[in-house]
Design a protein that fits this description.
Blueprint: E1 3-17, E2 20-36, H1 40-48, E3 54-60, H2 63-70, E4 75-79, E5 82-91, E6 98-105
Antiparallel strand pairs: 1-2, 1-4, 2-3, 3-6, 4-5, 5-6
Amino acid sequence: MSETARINVIRKHSNVVDGRKQVTTEDFYSCWCKVQSLGTNEKYTALQHGIERTIVFKVRNCKKVSEIVLDTREFFAVYKGTEFKIYDASPMFTDNGQVLLKCRVGE
């Protein structure tokens, strides 16, 4: 599985209003990516941890993507109408200009 597609990255903000926590979202970044699947070892490890529906988005590195790398908990990706929680964002070893966003379905 390797196709080019567009993803939207959404940022979650938590605010306390009148003593109650409110979560708001905003469109943070929209970009083209290459959709990939996990490697064999990663897939086996994900299955052991009960993470069955995972996907990897290979995106170009920029300032916005660097913010995602610093704190993945604030962000999630939307691909073809499905929300994916970003659990890892790491630059590629072979090409520093690319970042792999590893995601799973749901929260």
